[in-house]
Amino acid sequence: MINKDYILRLAEQIGYELSILVGLRKRNRYQDELLTIDNLLLKYTGMTSRFINSLSDELLLQSLSPLGKMNVDAGLWIASLLKEEGEAYEGLDNSNESYYRYTKSLYLFLELLYQEHVASDSGLYEEANQLIEKLSGYELPAHITQKLFRYYEQRGMYAQAENTLFDALEKQSSPALLEAGREFYQRLLKKSSTDLQLGNFSREEAQEGIEQIQQFES
User: Fold this and answer.
1) Residue 165 class from Cβ within 10 Å (0-12 exposed, 13-18 middle, 19+ buried)?
2) Is there a contact between 176 and 139 (Cβ–Cβ < 8 Å)?
3) What InterPro entries does the database record attribute to this sequence (predicted)?
């Protein structure tokens, strides 16, 4: 788990830079904002926006994980600044570019929250939830849908996890995802009725889910 004080210090530093970007955006200085974002990315990560956005999500994650685990500093800077870049493009009425930045940012936030088991009161969850809301009207790529499934279970939102699981299966059914679904329901069956109820779920629904998973295997 990331040290809470460390995250607070890093978030405070990022927040200071973001406040400057927000000021530019409020004055409709979107091009200046994009230039500033590029400079910040180069300063704090050694990578430009063009390079970052030229990589697939998977390749970007690999580049941030030289030892098999994401570099927290670089990952958080990139996730935060991509989100702001999406805001700038949204201000420019360029929905294609904003969507691309939002999905890449969400991908990194979800991976960071999963790998580091961030404290439940961290503001990083709010960042992720804002992105999920922004993208709620769009079709998400299969690899991000799969990470959302994992995220919802991690947060104890079991009904939403199930919905996202079947959304992912409809997009791209695979042996690995089917196995992840079976393991998900097995974990739920071991939980108390109270825990399941808090996640808007029940033991009966878990049993039904296992049967539905089997239908995808046939």
Assistant:
1) buried
2) no
3) DUF6483 (IPR045507)
69, 79 contact by CB (below 8 A): no
**How far is CA 149 from its chain centroid?**
11
Residue spans of the domains in the chain: they are 4-137, 147-217
Q: For 159-193, write each residue's pLDDT tens digit.
A: 999 999 999 998 888 899 999 999 999 999 999 99
Locate all alpha helices (DSSP H) within the chain, ordered by sequence: 4-26, 30-45, 49-54, 57-63, 72-91, 95-116, 124-134, 142-154, 158-171, 175-189, 193-198, 203-217
Q: What is the pLDDT of residues 121-154, one digit of tens each?
A: 888 999 999 999 999 999 999 999 999 999 999 9
